[in-house]
Automatic annotation (TrEMBL):
Protein name: Orn/Lys/Arg decarboxylase N-terminal domain-containing protein
Species assigned in the record: Streptomyces aureoversilis
One Pfam family from the record: OKR_DC_1
Domain Orn/Lys/Arg decarboxylases family 1 pyridoxal-P attachment site: 409-423
Keyword Isomerase part of the UniProt annotation: no
Compositionally biased tracts (Basic and acidic residues): 70-89
Highest classification ranks of the organism: Bacteria, Bacillati, Actinomycetota, Actinomycetes, Kitasatosporales
Region described as Disordered: 69-101
InterPro entries, sorted: OKR_de-COase_N, Orn/lys/arg_de-COase, Orn/Lys/Arg_deCO2ase_major_dom, Prn/Lys/Arg_de-COase_C, Prn/Lys/Arg_de-COase_C_sf, PyrdxlP-dep_Trfase, PyrdxlP-dep_Trfase_major, PyrdxlP-dep_Trfase_small
Annotated keywords: Decarboxylase, Lyase, Pyridoxal phosphate
Family to which this protein belongs: Belongs to the Orn/Lys/Arg decarboxylase class-I family.
Length: 807
């Protein structure tokens, strides 16, 4: 491994006439001669700044008497302190500056070698916890500079050698052997690309190291992804330890493949699966593969159109049994008992469950519980999310025999640091539904590849290692802290605008509690005025209190659901969480179209909300740029700026529709249309009043591939059976599943889809992203895939099976 950086957090003048300082400079030069870069900080504040920003440290030398920012020496004494003082940075009151540096090392790094410089003849004056933090002590004048530098360099090398996780370490070592490749892939470490001009451009762009790491499964030294042996197996076992699983599997085709894999393993043909309607389409794909019969559980919704959690009453045994009994697919099922349940945690808008409450509620109804945590892989590593992730459910928290086997599927690349498509399946089996590795591995191999990209495996290995120990909390804590700062800033700016009186008093809002309560004092304070430390560390500040107006979800219980602070939903004027619409408004689609012109791409846009993610890669500069864009949009709106200036590409693409228009005029026209068509209310009705199931999804898929389906316009779709899933973004949740009846022309589903169709016609350039819907190239009508020739009197699985044969 290349030599790294060593921090010298040392006073400029140690008070010994400069002799000690001169010796430290000699040590500094010796380390530079050995290939290390030395970062020198002469104050505790400077040292902590280096620790915050320099992840490549290999060792640190810390002066216990380091002064603070004012340059004054701290007292040598100081009280004994614990390892965690509740402060974000800094020493305990009365302690030297070096104490705060040591504390931050413990929060930021795991096992970083630290050498302490102390002026005392003995170590009695040091707090006891210091001995647990440092690896050695330095009295600069008692040994030679080369000897001391050698001790530091040796410790740094040992740290660097132990830093790499199993697979990444083995991959680097294999890369260093410079072996000739006689196996696939055919580019042979990139050599083939060098023989073509366009190939050479590709080679130069990505570099030799990546291409040399693209290897075949024939390389035995790196182990087997299918056999889970060697460095691959070691990496999966290491990840299981870090994520709290009994077994972890690395998956190279994203969380979508994880979902299909778990569903395919957990439920078989004609068995019942309980499915959160707020699910990803890959969950349905798993049911198509397995031939299961889905019984859907319906989440709450609020006035913004945001999907909430499954209500606590919805997942109780009596309610689940009633849903199963009423479902038309149940009579043809193997058993009336569900074999598998899957729900989304956290939701797309950042709502996460108390996982133990959910497991206890669903345990009487199913032996297998799957938390789709595609956007929640970081939950185990911050106390805000304690108990709110699948792997928190285990023998220690749910010791009774009724405990279900729990699966967590995580899209590691989404909000942890891994390459795209990198994902993991975590398993915590229970005796009532054992998961024998060899059997699960059959499902794993069905959905895996015999040509894995080794850099992707390495990225999973590294992503897990980054979360190991204190560094994991530090990384997530930084994202939470920046999200809190942004949230408070938006509210504070809104208050300043309203108080100034020199411009229209509106601004964007943030979907979050208006007030929070400090549990230590019982004091209730406005969210924007709450201490950042409280919001960063206290889960009760983010819980959805039953009946609270700000979230708008009915039927919740205390502590059941929590809003994830790193998923920030901006709200636009025009509607509130109860669904009350005002006379004027700013639809979010217009805002996000403007943000795109500023190279700001948001995660999701609904009618009056837009979602942005505060991942580990967030910086103050990044969200500061967003704040500037929001302020600029307000100015442009207040000025009623012409669309040619605000959205020039929109006007260029649709000149007849938008030439001569203004930003305020477009916003008001769109708001009026949304209000007149009741689109937000129609969305809520469509998601609450589910279509009637007619046949299992697998039957529809068989019709689809054998030509037994047809595309029909919405005006002709009444009473038809859908052959493909229809998912509309916003909000990104399926409104129609294969095998479900579309209902009547004026029923909730077709009424909602026709309203969307009308919106797309009226506002070209702002069309809804609808999967499972195609557009008629002549008139732009919505077309949906339906099963052919279903007589009105035929319903149920038996009829559907006959129709499959008929096809």
């Amino acid at each position: 491994m290349a030599d790294g950086t060593i921090l010298f957090a040392v006073r400029e003048n140690s008070g010994d006439g400069g002799t000690g300082a001169e010796q430290l400079r000699r040590i500094h030069k010796e380390l530079e001669a050995a290939g290390y870069e030395v970062r020198w900080a002469s104050t505790s504040d400077g040292a902590r700044a280096v620790l915050r920003t320099e992840a490549g440290l290999a060792a640190a030398v810390v002066d216990w008497g380091l002064p603070g920012a004012d340059g004054k020496d701290a007292k040598e004494g100081g009280k004994q302190a614990g390892a965690e003082d509740g402060k974000e940075d800094g020493a305990e009151d009365g302690e030297p500056g070096g104490s705060g540096v040591l504390r931050q090392v413990g929060r930021r790094f795991q096992n970083l070698p630290v050498f302490l410089i102390t002026a005392g003849e003995d170590l009695d004056h040091l707090p006891l916890w210091v001995a647990e933090t440092v690896v050695g002590y330095i009295w600069p004048l008692e040994d030679t500079a080369p000897f001391i530098a050698g001790r530091i360099a040796r410790a740094a090398r040992g740290y660097q050698e132990d830093l790499l996780p199993p697979f990444f370490k083995a991959l680097r070592e294999f890369d260093d052997t410079h072996e000739y490749s006689w196996h696939t892939p055919a580019h042979s470490g990139g050599v083939a690309f060098l023989k073509s001009p366009v190939g050479r451009a590709f080679y130069d762009h990505f570099g030799e190291r990546l291409l040399r790491s693209d290897l075949s499964i024939s390389v035995g030294e790196l182990g087997s992804l299918f056999e889970h042996t060697g460095p691959v197996g070691a990496a999966e076992r290491n990840a299981a330890r870090i994520f709290g699983a009994d077994r972890t599997y690395f998956v190279l085709h994203g969380d979508s493949t994880c979902d299909r894999m778990v569903g395919h393993f957990s439920v078989t043909r004609d068995e019942i699966a309980l499915v959160d309607r707020n699910c990803h389409k890959s969950v349905l794909h798993g049911l198509v593969l397995s031939g299961a019969r889905p019984v859907y559980l319906v989440p709450t919704r609020n006035g913004y159109g945001l999907a909430g959690p499954l209500p606590p009453a919805e997942i109780q045994a009596q309610s689940v049994a009633s849903r199963i009994a009423r479902n038309p697919l149940t009579p043809g099922a193997v058993s009336p008992d569900a074999q598998y349940a899957v729900l989304t945690n956290s939701t797309y808008d950042g709502l996460c469950y108390d996982a133990l409450q959910v497991a206890r509620a669903l345990a009487p109804s199913t032996p297998r519980l799957h938390f789709d945590e595609a956007w929640f892989a970081y939950a185990r590593f911050h106390p805000l999310y304690a108990g709110r992730y699948g792997m928190a459910v285990g023998p220690g928290t749910f010791p009774e025999p009724e405990r279900p086997t729990v699966f967590s599927t995580q899209s590691t690349h989404k909000l942890l640091a891994a390459l795209s498509q990198s994902a993991m399946v975590h398993v915590k089996p229970a005796p009532r539904a054992p998961v024998e590795h060899e059997r699960f591995n059959e499902a794993f191999m069905m959905h895996g590849t015999t040509s894995p990209l080794y850099p992707m495996i390495a990225s999973l290995d590294v992503a897990a290692a980054m979360m190991d120990g204190p560094q994991g909390r530090w990384l997530i804590d930084e994202a939470v802290a920046e999200a809190v700062r942004f949230r408070q800033t938006v509210v504070r700016i809104g208050r300043r605008i309203a108080a100034a009186g020199d411009r229209p008093g509106w601004f964007f809002g943030v979907w979050q509690p208006e007030t929070v309560t400090d549990p230590a004092t019982g004091e209730q304070v406005p969210f924007a005025d709450a201490p950042a430390e409280l919001l960063r560390t206290e889960p009760s500040c983010w819980q959805l209190e039953p009946g609270a107006d700000w979230h708008g979800f009915p039927g919740l219980t205390e502590g059941y659901c929590l809003l994830d602070p790193v998923k920030v939903t901006l709200t636009c004027p025009g509607i509130d969480a109860s669904g009350r619409m005002s006379d004027w408004g700013i639809p979010a689609r217009v805002l996000t179209a403007y943000l795109a012109t500023r190279n700001i791409v948001v995660e999701k846009t609904d009618s009056y909300t837009t979602l942005i993610l505060f991942s580990m890669g967030i910086t103050k500069g990044k969200w500061g740029t967003l704040m500037d864009a929001l302020m600029d949009f307000k100015t442009l709106y207040d000025e009623d700026a012409p669309l040619e200036r605000v959205l020039p590409e929109l006007v260029e693409a649709h000149p007849q529709r938008y030439t001569g228009g203004t930003l305020r005029g477009l916003c008001q026209e769109m708001h009026d249309h949304l209000r007149e068509t009741d689109l937000v209310e129609l969305l809520d009705t469509a998601f609450q009043d589910l279509p009637e199931p007619v046949t299992p999804p697998q039957h529809c898929y068989q019709r689809l591939i054998r030509g037994g389906t047809e595309r029909v316009r919405l005006a002709e779709a009444a009473g038809r059976v859908a052959a493909a899933m229809v998912t509309v973004t916003p909000p990104g949740i399926p409104v129609l599943m294969p095998g479900e009846n579309t209902g009547t022309q004026d029923g909730p589903l077709l009424h909602y889809l026709k309203a969307l169709e009308s919106f797309d016609r009226r506002f070209p350039g702002f069309h809804s992203e609808a999967h499972g819907v195609t557009l008629d190239p002549d008139g732009g009508d919505y077309l949906i895939e339906c099963v052919r020739r279903i007589p009105a009197q035929q319903t149920g699985p038996e009829a559907a099976s006959a129709q499959v044969t008929d096809a």
